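Translate structure to sequence.
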C-alpha cells in the first residue's frame, strides 16, 4: 500500500464578532471529487467544499506545507496558532492506477494575516474552483469530508477555550 503525507490548514478570522474559516470548492472534475455513480452521490452534484491541503514536498515540514497550500489554494497568508490533529484514512486512486493509499494529513489552526480570498493563479484553478470564507460555526455542515468536519469542530473548541490567544 502506498503512503501519502499531507498537511493543511483551518484558517480563521474574526470579522464583526463572527468567526470565519477559509474553504475551497473543488472543480466539478477533480481527483478528489467523486465521479457520478459512486455510492451516495446524487445525480445533481453539490459543490464539494473542503479545507486547503496538499502533499508534503521532500525536505519540507508539515507546517510549511500547510502554510504554502493555504497561500496557493486560497490566495491568503496565515500565521500558525497550533496543530489541531492528524487524520488518517485509506482511499483508492480512481484517477490513476487504482492503488490503495494510506494517507495521513496533519492539520493546523492558522490565523488570517493578509491577502484576498480567491486571488489564486490560473494554474491553481485545476485544483480549486474557488476559495471563500464560510462561517466557522456552519463549517461542519458545509464541509464534505468527515475528518475535515472534525478539524472545524476542533478549531471552534480551541477558539472557545483560548480566546485570549486568538484575539477577536
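Result:
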Amino acid at each position: 500500500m502506498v503512503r501519502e503525507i499531507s498537511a493543511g490548514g483551518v484558517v480563521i478570522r474574526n470579522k464583526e464578532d463572527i468567526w470565519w474559516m477559509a474553504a475551497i470548492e473543488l472543480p466539478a472534475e477533480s481527483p478528489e471529487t467523486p465521479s457520478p455513480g459512486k455510492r451516495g452521490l446524487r445525480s445533481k452534484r453539490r459543490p464539494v467544499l473542503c479545507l486547503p491541503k496538499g502533499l508534503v514536498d521532500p525536505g519540507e515540514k508539515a507546517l510549511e506545507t500547510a502554510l504554502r497550500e493555504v497561500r496557493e489554494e486560497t490566495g491568503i497568508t496565515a500565521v500558525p496558532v497550533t496543530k489541531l490533529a492528524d487524520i488518517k484514512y485509506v482511499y483508492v486512486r480512481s484517477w490513476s492506477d487504482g492503488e490503495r493509499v494510506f494517507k495521513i494529513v496533519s492539520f493546523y489552526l492558522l490565523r488570517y494575516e493578509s491577502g484576498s480570498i480567491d486571488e489564486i493563479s490560473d494554474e491553481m484553478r485545476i485544483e480549486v474552483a474557488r476559495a471563500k470564507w464560510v462561517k466557522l460555526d456552519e463549517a461542519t455542515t458545509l464541509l464534505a469530508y468527515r475528518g475535515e468536519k472534525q478539524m472545524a469542530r476542533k478549531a471552534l473548541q480551541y477558539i472557545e477555550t483560548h480566546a485570549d490567544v486568538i484575539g477577536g
